[in-house]
Write a structure and sequence with these properties.
- The protein is mainly β and 139 residues long.
- The protein has one helix and twelve strands; from the N terminus they run ββββββββββββα.
- The strands form three sheets. A five-stranded antiparallel sheet has the order 1-9-6-11-4, with no helix packed on it. A five-stranded antiparallel sheet has the order 8-7-10-5-12.
- The protein binds thymidine-5'-diphosphate (TYD).
- Thymidine-5'-diphosphate (TYD) binds next to strand 4 and strand 5.
């Protein structure tokens, strides 16, 4: 989606069930998110570095800080928006065509990603100038 913007990113409340035994959250295909989940991966034991730094042409994602916190900086080539993820019942829905940087992981943080497609290196844009051209922001 070449014309997606940072305003198309959405924080959603993930269903949660709680009782005296604690909390349980669930994400189900066709009910809680607008795409079918084909892949799950998660980042953990992240040192004081930035990750991400890429965009996807087709991939849709839901990011959840299942533990700890981190910042997800979304960028459409014209505007940036920072989402601080720090609750396991909050998810950041990311449409295709946006650059993301992941920063400020707290100790012990785990970032889980539910993805609409299997891994495809061809779907990545890893060069920021190339991203700006893809978005039509730069010649
Ligand atoms: P990378 O894309 O560099 O991580 P980041 O999300 O921080 O940009 O991925 C790190 C390595 O993991 C890279 O060698 C590709 C591999 N990888 C897979 O094989 N499958 C996957 O689903 C993902 C997300 C990464």
């Amino acid at each position: 989606m070449k014309n997606s913007t940072v305003d198309d990113c959405k924080i959603i409340d993930i269903r949660r069930y709680s009782d005296s035994r604690g909390y349980l959250s669930v994400v189900e295909n066709g009910i809680d998110i607008p795409f079918d989940i084909k892949r799950i991966y998660y980042l953990y034991m992240v040192p004081e570095v930035a990750r991400g730094a890429h965009a996807h042409k087709q991939l849709q994602q839901l990011l959840i800080a299942t533990s700890g916190s981190m910042d997800v900086i979304m960028d459409d080539g014209q505007e940036k928006k920072t989402f601080h993820l720090d609750r396991p019942w909050k998810g950041l829905l990311i449409p295709p065509g946006l650059w993301r940087d992941l920063e400020n992981f707290s100790g012990g943080a785990v970032l889980m990603c539910l993805a609409s497609e299997k891994y495809d290196a061809e779907d990545y844009i890893r060069d920021y100038d190339e991203f700006l051209k893809y978005k039509g922001v730069k010649e």
